[in-house]
Amino acid sequence: MKITVMTADEKILTLDVDRNESVENLKALLEVETRVPLQQQQLLYNGREMRNAEKFGALGVTDGDLVMMVSNASSSGARASPNEAGFNPDGSAMNPSALQQQLRNDSNVMAQLFQSDPELAQAILGNDLDRLQDILRSRNRARGELRRQQEEEMALLYADPFDVEAQKKIEAAIRQKGIDENWAAAVEYNPEAFARVVMLYVDMEVNGVPLKAFVDSGAQSTIISKSCAERCGLSRLLDTRYRGIAQGVGQSEIIGRIHVAPIKIGNNFYPCTFTVLDSPNMEFLFGLDMLRKHQCIIDLKENVLRVGGGEVSVPFLAEKDIPSNLFNEERLTKDASSSGAQATSVSKENINSPTVRPSATGSTGRNAAQGPDFEAKVAKLVELGFGREQVIQALKFFDGNEEQAAGFLFGG
């Protein structure tokens, strides 16, 4: 006859057994299927524990019946060797200082903690061991509550396998398990997905002035800020008849258009058209209009921008070569590069263009560096083995948020 076994982790097994077979033999088979030792298995049928020596026929098990398997591995293992586990029964660490140091030394674990439990990760980086112990205890209580809820759901299933509420809870648990497995697979096979992606910058010259150009194929137009246009000596060419409002995630004022000016990419010069925005947060964005005009190729395999169908190749800048003040620009411009962004003209024509969201506070990275505890944050992160300049840039990028900066450094 066939019986269905549901394990504690919601795994469903269908097994062939004989009515005269003992429960112990079924446990041996389950040990092979689930890797749970026979001694740690507890089988329940209609809410009653099945003893090893009992036979299925004597227990009244029939074809198609459901048997629940509960593993007591965690409790028995903790009682057998508490010193190996390193944790007290209440979840606190037996040696919090050693645990803290061990976790700090494992960058992969720290990177995962910053993604899944940033509060615990911050406590590990801090110097307050009492706070670390309190968080470990609270996590242990939460796990205990979760186990209690799972046991209640199993009991509900036994009471009435066809109860609608019971089936909803089981469905939700199975769905969440799939999500957790998907996350674990991503961490193992695609860990770079959890790291910050550095946007694409290249060195260019606009009217003889060197600039770091943000290459953005998601922006409809090439954009230059008013201040950058003045620095490049292009203000005299500004056509204010093309004023308007650039709308996307936010909005910014278009103060005009520069119809043509020379840009230098590599050793070659190319004509370029600019939409001029009154936005202090963004200098120069090389958009899709000029990428198309000059037949540019974004070659991520070779990490270069090819211009003119490949006649000129310039490398994308490494993160260390991008000025820290551009990190804030990059974050704002990502919001601006919405493919549906449009500019509403107030004069002769409509100008399709993405926008840069105005900032209410200006350069927050610079303000963060002026805080009284900024040096203390730098010193703490430098102690973890990161370079001082790298730490300062990360803190500025995350507006002085030590937790986010540490997560980025570990993830990078």
From TrEMBL:
Its main location: cytoplasm. Residues 1-76 form the Ubiquitin-like domain. Keywords: Aspartyl protease, Cytoplasm, Hydrolase, Protease, Protein transport, Transport. Residues 333-370 are annotated as: Disordered. InterPro entries: Ddi1/2_HDD (IPR057273), DDI1_N (IPR033882), Peptidase_A2_cat (IPR001995), Peptidase_aspartic_DDI1-type (IPR019103), Peptidase_aspartic_dom_sf (IPR021109), UBA (IPR015940), UBA-like_sf (IPR009060), Ubiquitin-like_dom (IPR000626). One of its GO terms (molecular function) is polyubiquitin modification-dependent protein binding. Residues 335-367 have a biased composition (Polar residues). Residues 371-412 form the UBA domain. Gene3D superfamilies: Acid Proteases, DNA helicase RuvA subunit, C-terminal domain, Phosphatidylinositol 3-kinase Catalytic Subunit, Chain A, domain 1. Residues 211-290 form the Peptidase A2 domain. Coiled coil: none annotated. It comes from the Eukaryota. The keyword Calcium does not apply. It holds the Pfam family Asp_protease. GO terms for cellular component: cytoplasm. SUPFAM superfamilies: Acid proteases, UBA-like, Ubiquitin-like. GO terms for biological process: protein transport; proteolysis. It is found in: Cytoplasm. Belongs to the DDI1 family. This is DNA damage-inducible protein 1. It comes from Fraxinus pennsylvanica.
